[in-house]
Automatic annotation (TrEMBL):
Source species of the chain: Magnetococcus marinus (strain ATCC BAA-1437 / JCM 17883 / MC-1)
GO BP: phosphorelay signal transduction system
Source domain of life: Bacteria
Protein name: Response regulator receiver protein
Keywords: Phosphoprotein
PTM annotation (4-aspartylphosphate): residues: 52
SMART domains: REC
Short name of one Pfam family: Response_reg
Residues covered by the Response regulatory domain: 4-119
């Protein structure tokens, strides 16, 4: 079944370009401002929104905040596509609940890669969340948990399970997923930032991950996550068996990486998902806290 994308931009030329780029693969609908976008969300029921920021009547930020304030749209992926590219603009967009922030002029390959990544993330989250909804009352009684993981699939499943111990599962699941995937790909599998960027653009990311998981140099490595819940806070410690990395450039949103299909996960977790985030040692251990 074809996915549906709502394109929101006050520029007719921008809407036409998106149509040319995406109509062969997706069902498209269009709006030229935020008011029209909200109407189309209710009528068209898109699976994803491509949203400009600077528009008349209701701009992109107000539109995104309006949608994310309603539970039914909380997990609807919103990708900003805009010329506003300062760190403050990017941080503001992500804080409003955007899945990603792409600056104009954009690379077509990056746009299509990010769209596919968003759909993949939503599919995985929806499937497992439906299962977890049946046992959430049990998860809230958990006070300690200690788990190991090797694959990205295991990391994603564990992140979603642990998120249901947290007061705000949707926000926690995003941050936990980023930290656990980071432990697998950049930690245990020694995948650099540049490596991941090139693999995503080439469409060979998943193949490379599978190959590294069976490589003798990496096959024995595991990640570990420990969670402890008290009446005042939840603490999560994620460890990997890699050599570490310099995490400092990734704690904040950086416009120099605005055109890359990766590189925002840690900043997103730091800004939106946890009360406190701290890397320790060489970078192969991270502590996240959620205050109740």
């Amino acid at each position: 079944m074809q996915r549906k994308i709502l394109v929101v931009d006050d520029s007719a030329a921008a809407r036409q370009r998106m149509q040319q780029l995406l109509e062969a693969e997706y069902i498209l609908e269009f709006a030229d401002d935020g008011v029209g976008a909200i109407e189309q969300v209710e009528q068209f029921k898109p699976d994803l929104i491509l949203l400009d920021r600077m528009m008349p009547t209701m701009d992109g930020m107000e539109t995104c905040r309006h949608l994310k304030a309603h539970q039914i749209h909380k997990h609807l992926p919103v990708i900003f596509v805009t010329s506003l590219s300062t760190p403050a603009h990017i941080a503001e967009g992500i804080a409003a609940g955007a899945y990603y922030y792409i600056t104009k002029p954009f690379d077509v390959q990056i746009l299509t890669t990010v769209i596919k990544s968003a759909f993949s993330h939503v599919r995985a989250y929806t499937a497992l969340n439906q299962e977890m909804a049946r046992v959430v009352h049990v998860m809230r009684k958990v006070t300690k948990i200690d788990l190991t993981f090797k694959t990205i699939a295991e990391a994603c499943d564990i992140a979603l399970v642990l998120s249901h111990i947290c007061p705000q599962p949707s926000e926690a699941s995003i941050g936990l997923t980023e930290l656990l995937i980071n432990a697998v790909e950049h930690g245990n599998l020694a995948l650099s930032y540049a490596d991941k960027k090139q693999l995503l653009l080439a469409g060979t990311y998943h193949l490379e991950i599978e190959q590294r998981l069976t490589d003798k140099a990496f096959a024995h490595k595991q990640g570990r996550v420990r969670m402890a819940s008290t009446p005042k806070q939840i603490q999560i410690i994620v460890q990997d068996q890699g050599t570490g990395f310099d995490w400092t450039p990734y704690l904040e949103f950086n416009p120099d990486r605005a055109f890359d299909p990766n590189g925002r996960g840690i900043a997103l977790a730091n800004k939106n998902c946890f009360s406190h985030l701290e890397y320790r040692g060489c970078g192969n251990e991270v502590v996240a806290k959620i205050y109740k």
